[in-house]
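User: Just a sanity check before I run the rest of the batch. Below are the structure tokens for the first item. I only need the designed sequence back.
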């Protein structure tokens, strides 16, 4: 039984392939075409998944996409009609989104993790120059029918005949795909589940209970209310306009004071039953729509925040402008309010289920600061965060919703790591090194970690390219840059030589799993770098390069069973230094994480990295 899952037509396009319930491959399109958060159709990701399985597309039994245009269709039509009536009674002007839709044939996009350009806000709702209410409803139905059929795009992308695609095709509702991704591959037989992001299929948040092969939805928050919208709008307002910049704001927040918390409690208000609602005066998406374009590249998003932000906080910061105390305090207030709302939903979910195991997914689940506080602020005691919690992970969720949820096959896969992408042999690596006319050394399996550990302890910047590439946004020891966490200057060295990013952003500690409690105030495993814990005060001076301004660290716990080579590297470093931790950052320079040996060599040559370990080979800067 072979199942292909696809996330397409918006940011973080990806594909995943499952055979008989086991993960064969999962990968984002950006890793191949080198456009960050690439949107559109994941052609190369699909090709890789098929290659990893050793099959052609004709051999796939089921194919699904993490979007169901017919889901909540009546609510979409009602919302469109209501908005149309309001706009017709007002100025009658045509929105910029409506004009763009007429120009591009009213092409729709799917729900984005960060909550823009969904089909919920793309229609021109006015009866003066636009399609009008009945025209909108007709478009809704015709677009739903068009998007429901993947066969044309898939056949075109793979250059095969549509009639040769024997697979059964499925449309899986966006948040159900998220929920499936956090439950069916979790270690839990029964668990509470939360999917929280921007929007997808008219929903921003969905919670449920999973048991064996079933997921029962218990509640949801509908368009236009969304925590993702709040975070993205505020991210734009304080001068970070790019898709995926929310993580920068999370890193900035510890520098500020939450003196605007009263304002943010007005911007997003909690209500009974785990619900929350936006003060829509602060936003444009519900009334004007927000444009998003990509042309098979990185998404570009229109402005989400309204003029009310400026009336409340002052003028928006321009991108590249000086960061002031105001921006730091806005970030701190936003982060605190996200946590308050998140725990409000989670505590209600626990009251409904009585469970203490939690599966977490959705783009907001990348907020590792909030994740790290779940055990401290809710009754949950074990948390599984999908490593690809954002929209790329829905490709995997589609596979398991089909395999376990629809076809009712027994569960058996537990996703302990995220190593599901391409890998390369030493022969393939050596070929690329010779093409580049680079001198290299070759070591045994035991020697390679010993040599690398000595280089790290000596203060060198080490590129570490090993095994299968990670699925999701985090480098977890296979496509990493690794340095000594004891050296405070390493943060500036990395930013100056390689990363070229904002100095306020922290770097992550990778720690031997069994030593977590020696350095951190919590011990719950965090194998995919999606938890932030406080570092024990007495340990902070020992590892200053991975200690953030508030004493925290976004840690990765490393176990021997999940990544034996990376575990051995850290163990060898510990033997030399007494410290069971290394600083781990992604192997890239303002681009997607490197995928192939060619990418790694190119990144090494254009930066000032000191030494690169590719499999068992090493090259040094002369």
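Assistant: Here's the designed sequence for the first item:
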């Amino acid at each position: 039984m072979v199942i292909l899952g696809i996330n397409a037509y918006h940011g973080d396009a990806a594909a995943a392939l499952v055979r008989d319930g086991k993960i064969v491959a999962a990968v984002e399109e950006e890793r191949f075409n080198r456009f960050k958060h690439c949107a559109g159709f994941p052609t190369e990701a699909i090709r890789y998944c098929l290659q990893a399985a050793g099959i052609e597309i004709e051999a796939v039994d089921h194919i699904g996409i993490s979007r169901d245009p017919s889901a909540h269709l009546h609510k979409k039509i009602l919302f469109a009609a209501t908005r149309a009536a309001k706009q017709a009674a007002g100025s009658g002007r045509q929105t910029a989104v409506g004009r763009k839709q007429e120009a591009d044939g009213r092409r729709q996009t799917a729900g984005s993790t960060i909550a823009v350009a969904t089909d919920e806000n793309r229609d021109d709702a006015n009866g003066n120059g636009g399609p009008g209410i009945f025209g909108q409803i007709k478009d809704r139905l015709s677009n739903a029918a068009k998007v429901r059929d993947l066969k044309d795009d898939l056949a075109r992308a793979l250059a095969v005949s549509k009639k040769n695609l024997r697979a059964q095709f499925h449309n899986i509702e966006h948040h159900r795909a998220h929920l499936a991704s956090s439950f069916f591959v979790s270690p839990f037989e029964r668990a509470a589940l939360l999917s929280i992001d921007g929007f997808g299929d008219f929903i921003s948040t969905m919670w449920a209970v999973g048991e064996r092969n079933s997921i029962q939805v218990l509640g949801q928050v509908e368009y236009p209310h969304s925590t993702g919208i709040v975070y993205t709008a505020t991210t734009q307002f304080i001068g970070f306009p790019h898709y995926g910049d929310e993580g920068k704001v999370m890193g900035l927040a510890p520098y500020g004071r939450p003196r605007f918390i009263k304002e943010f409690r007005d911007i997003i208000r909690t209500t009974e039953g785990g619900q929350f609602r936006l003060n829509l005066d602060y936003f444009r998406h519900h009334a004007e729509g927000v444009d998003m374009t990509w042309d098979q590249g990185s998404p570009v998003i229109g402005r989400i925040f309204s003029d009310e932000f400026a009336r409340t906080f002052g003028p928006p910061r321009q991108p590249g402008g000086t960061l002031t105390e105001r921006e730091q305090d806005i970030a701190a207030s936003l982060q605190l309010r996200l946590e308050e709302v998140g725990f409000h939903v989670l505590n209600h979910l626990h009251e409904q289920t009585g469970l203490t195991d939690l599966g977490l997914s959705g783009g907001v689940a990348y907020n590792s600061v909030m994740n790290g506080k779940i055990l401290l602020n809710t009754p949950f005691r074990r948390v599984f965060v999908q490593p690809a919690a954002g929209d790329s992970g829905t490709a995997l969720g589609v596979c398991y919703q089909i395999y376990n949820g629809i076809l009712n096959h027994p569960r058996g896969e537990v996703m302990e790591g995220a190593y599901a992408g391409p890998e390369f042999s030493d022969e393939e690596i050596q070929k690329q090194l010779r093409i580049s006319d680079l001198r290299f050394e070759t070591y045994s399996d035991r020697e390679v970690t010993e040599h690398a550990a000595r280089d790290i302890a000596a203060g060198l910047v080490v590129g570490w390219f090993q095994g299968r590439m990670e699925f999701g946004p985090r480098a977890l020891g296979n496509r990493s840059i690794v340095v000594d966490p004891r050296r405070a200057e390493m943060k500036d060295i990395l930013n100056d030589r390689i990363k070229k990013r904002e100095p306020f952003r922290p770097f992550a500690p990778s720690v031997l799993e069994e030593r977590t409690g020696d350095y951190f105030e919590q011990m719950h495993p965090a194998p995919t770098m999606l938890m932030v814990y406080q570092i024990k005060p007495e340990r902070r001076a020992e590892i200053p390069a991975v200690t953030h301004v508030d004493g925290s660290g976004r840690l990765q716990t490393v176990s021997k069973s999940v990544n034996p080579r990376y575990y051995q590297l850290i163990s060898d470093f510990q033997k030399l230094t007494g410290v069971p931790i290394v600083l781990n950052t992604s192997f890239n320079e303002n681009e997607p994480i490197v995928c192939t040996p060619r990418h790694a060599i190119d990144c090494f040559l254009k930066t000032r990295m000191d030494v690169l370990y590719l499999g068992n080979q090493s090259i040094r800067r002369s």
